[in-house]
Amino acid sequence: MTEYSIVVVDAFTQERYAGNPCAVVSRADGLDDVRMQAIAREMNLSETAFVFPSSNATFRVRFFTPQKEIPLAGHPTIATMFTLADEGRIDLSSGRARVTQELNVGVLPVDLERDAAGNVRVVMTQARPEFARRMDRATVAQALGIGVDDLLPDMPVQVVSTGTPQCMVPVRSLESLRRIRPDYGHLGDLENTGRFFSLHAFTLETLDPANRAHSRHFLANGGPLEDPVTGSASGAMAAYLWMYGLVRSPAYTVEQGHLMGRPGVVAVEVDAEGDEPTGIRIAGSAVTVLRGTITV
Q1: By the 8 A CB rule, do 237 and 202 touch?
Q2: What is the pLDDT of residues 191-223, one digit of tens each?
Q3: What pairing do the DSSP bridges indicate for beta strands 226-227 and 251-256?
Q4: Which of 104, 157, 190, 206 could form a Cys-Cys staple with 135, CB 3.0–4.6 A?
Q5: Rounded (5°) CA angle 13-280-140
Q6: Percent helix, percent strand, percent coil in the chain, to nearest 5
Q7: Contact 236, 242 (CB under 8 A)
Q8: Which of the residues 3, 42, 47, 255 is marked catalytic?
Q9: Could you tell me if 191 and 182 are in contact, meaning their C-beta atoms sit under 8 angstroms apart?
Q10: pTM here?
Q11: 205 carries an active-site annotation
């Protein structure tokens, strides 16, 4: 038997038991795919992150839901880099650092900043946005348990990826968002036929007027059925908002998790050439809530 240190970190918040929790095994040498999947299933969080040495980047990081490995993940990146900085494996003595993480989608940079109060902000660069299949609006609305009239008029329901393909669903209002009750069997079929990992429903109405969008995130085949605060999908949403002219600000914040009692805020930054978004970054803070060991 071997023991591995493991922490649980709440991402996109500085308040414990808010945001999105992620388990991090920061020294995962010796763990194979079967054991990593078993640990992720045992933790039963949206994702568990595993850190390895890399010959191509500062760290090799892999992300597992309770059911499968995924190529890129936002809140686990925030949680993982926060943990590595907390352990002293990322040097923030100057207040700033840039590292790279080797993911299944390639090598991507991560920037970290520590403010005067000691809070760490992690900025994750995601893959260049890709706009894929448009889904039938009525079919997706039915799977979510809402009407077509709840969807934002004249806007496509479309699969967008900044590393992980996710279905973007713009709705009219916070009330429409609140009334979503997914048929997960139907949603699972759509995930398979549409070739996307999960579904991200959002509205331009917000609880806090300082934010630009409020969202909910659902997945039938990947882990917990609703994810509190989703970094990868917030990046894809930012690309969608820019592409279709809904938000053309290069930097702003979005909110998620409030309807689950786990409020969080994601900062997004968009680079673009005209109507086309070319680069996406997401950022947030984190806080550790649990430290321990897991036996394998």
Answers
A1: yes
A2: 999 999 999 999 999 999 999 999 999 999 866
A3: unpaired
A4: 157
A5: 80
A6: 25, 40, 40
A7: no
A8: 47
A9: no
A10: 0.93
A11: no
How does pLDDT run across 87-103, given as a tens digit for each residue?
999 999 999 999 999 99
CA distances from 212 to 58, 269, 272 (A): 34, 12, 18
| Residue closest to 226 by CA, chosen among 263, 253, 265, 257 | 257
Tell me phi and psi for residue 118, to 5 degrees: 90, 0
Q: Which two tokens stand for residue 101?
A: 């993480």
Q: CB burial class (10 A; 0-12, 13-18, 19+) of residue 126?
A: buried
Instruction: Find out whether 51 and 26 touch, Cβ atoms under 8 Å.
Output: yes
The model's confidence at residue 117, banded by pLDDT at 50, 70 and 90, is confident
Q: What is the pLDDT of residue 102?
A: 97
- In the chain, DSSP finds a helix count (H) and a strand count (E) of 6, 18
Q: Which residues of 49-67 are buried (b: 16+ CB within 10 A; e: fewer)?
A: bbbbeeeebbbbbbbbbbe
